[in-house]
């Protein structure tokens, strides 16, 4: 029995099998245990002799089991180490990462330029009321100037639009056609002097082409205080041109009509690299009627007038037109066409 048992133990392929062998020989009902139980039936002399034999066999089996167990455990460990081995010299797996949208990049660049000039950036709602988008900006209903902005009107019921101080705003709703309504909202809630820029998305019911989108972005600027003049406006746009295109850039102003400024101008900046003027947007001195509308609204809210004896300038520029130049994009419709191949080009552009 000993020979056979030792061979079986030596050949056990895993711990499982070894456990079964241990039970077979040394377990409660094991072969050796049975033999031991049989001892009491033997005469004394024989019992002693046989007892010694069995004890020796037991010790041999236990030693063999232990040795095999150790060997199997070592083999298992070695195998696991081999299997789980990490080759630290292998190249890593690239993680997918997104990137910022080119319009976000352009917007951030613009905001940073003005922040450095002491402007604060604020934002306003995209759903707007007829009052803030038009009336308060001196564009009453039936005024021909309303045709300058083809409007998406909203018919939804139950939408609560908040005014500058959280009050409910009455009247017809629309998708803002420009960022200028934030001029009025900001002035109602603040007292001059201040300098702000307002980046934001605007909407126009327009046919699209290579330079026109129905949804695009503007950056509004508003500076109000005592003694603000057209020269300050020119200075601000000049600083913008310098920051964008370097010391060889310059600015150009041409008269144009906007109901909420007087005088009004459209401005362009010289793009030295491209050798051409870039029409950026509209600007002008804040119209007295806008200040009056702001103070009238403040009065309705129980606030004292704050815009007597001050002047201000405002401007609004198109972000897409600038980004097209900045990144060499030939068609405005690429921006929101949703093609990953286009957007992926801007990964890491910061
Ligand atoms: C305005 O929207 C005025 N609120 C700007 C302003 C602000 C004037 C403050 C005076 C004082 P306008 O409609 O011209 O103006 O638009 C301003 C700029 O937005 C344009 O110069 C152009 O760069 C851009 N823009 C206008 N329409 C589109 C369009 N459909 N797609 C892309 N960009 C546009
Ligand atoms: Mg237009």
From TrEMBL:
Gene Ontology BP, a term: phenylalanyl-tRNA aminoacylation
Enzyme class: ligase
Coiled coil residues, start to end: 54-84
Molecular function terms from GO: ATP binding; magnesium ion binding; phenylalanine-tRNA ligase activity; tRNA binding
Cofactor(s) required, per the database record: Mg(2+)
Stretch forming the signal peptide: none
Cofactor binding summary note: Binds 2 magnesium ions per tetramer.
Family annotation (InterPro entries): aa-tRNA-synth_II (IPR006195), aa-tRNA-synth_II/BPL/LPL (IPR045864), Phe-tRNA-synth_IIc_asu (IPR004529), Phe-tRNA_ligase_II_N (IPR004188), Phe_tRNA_ligase_alpha1_bac (IPR022911), Phenylalanyl-tRNA_Synthase (IPR002319), tRNA-bd_arm (IPR010978)
Pfam families per UniProt: Phe_tRNA-synt_N, tRNA-synt_2d
EC number: 6.1.1.20
SUPFAM superfamilies: Class II aaRS and biotin synthetases (SSF55681), tRNA-binding arm (SSF46589)
Reaction(s) catalysed by this chain's protein: tRNA(Phe) + L-phenylalanine + ATP = L-phenylalanyl-tRNA(Phe) + AMP + diphosphate + H(+)
This protein's GO CC annotations: cytoplasm
Keywords from the UniProt entry: Aminoacyl-tRNA synthetase, ATP-binding, Coiled coil, Cytoplasm, Ligase, Magnesium, Metal-binding, Nucleotide-binding, Protein biosynthesis
Gene3D superfamilies (alphabetical): Bira Bifunctional Protein, Domain 2
Family: Belongs to the class-II aminoacyl-tRNA synthetase family. Phe-tRNA synthetase alpha subunit type 1 subfamily.
NCBIfam families membership: pheS
Subunit structure: Tetramer of two alpha and two beta subunits.
Protein name: Phenylalanine--tRNA ligase alpha subunit
Species annotation: Thermus parvatiensis
Gene for this chain: pheS
